Amino acid sequence: MRKGMLVASVTLLAVLASGGSVVAAGTDAADAEAAKARAAVADAQVAVKAAAEHRALWTTAQSALAQAQAALEHGKYETARQLAEFAAEQARLGIAQMSYKQFQ
Asked: What angle do CA 89, 90, 93 make, to 5 degrees?
């Protein structure tokens, strides 16, 4: 489990170090990027909620979602999208883990 946490932490640090991209509002590209980020954050919220309901929520998913929401609020759409996708993946993996023999 420690190795998984280390990998998740390194992944989050890499995403945050990239800084994402801030695009000027009003352009078609910026609007599209913002829409993708908002959709990814919404998907992550649903996935994290589902993981919590299954009592399978990993802290990496919860933390990444919070960071994605903060990045979205600051207009860092690429960072928000990447973090949201990571959060959703971690939430889904938490749910999948519940089907492992050790958890039944």
From this structure: 85
- pTM, two decimal places: 0.71
List, for residues 12-59, the tens digit of each pLDDT value: 544 445 554 444 445 788 899 999 999 999 999 999 999 999 999 999
Amino acid, single-letter form, for residue 41: V
Nearest residue to 26 via CA among 79, 83, 75: 75
Distance CA 58, CA 52 (A): 9
Give the tokens for residue 16. Answer: 């945050």
How many domains would you assign to the chain? 1
Distance of CA 89 to the CA centre of its chain: 7
Task: State the residue range of the domain holding 76.
Answer: 2-103
DSSP class per residue in the chain: -HHHHHHHHHHHHHHHHH---B--TTSHHHHHHHHHHHHHHHHHHHHHHHHHHTT---HHHHHHHHHHHHHHHTTBHHHHHHHHHHHHHHHHHHHHHTTSGGG-
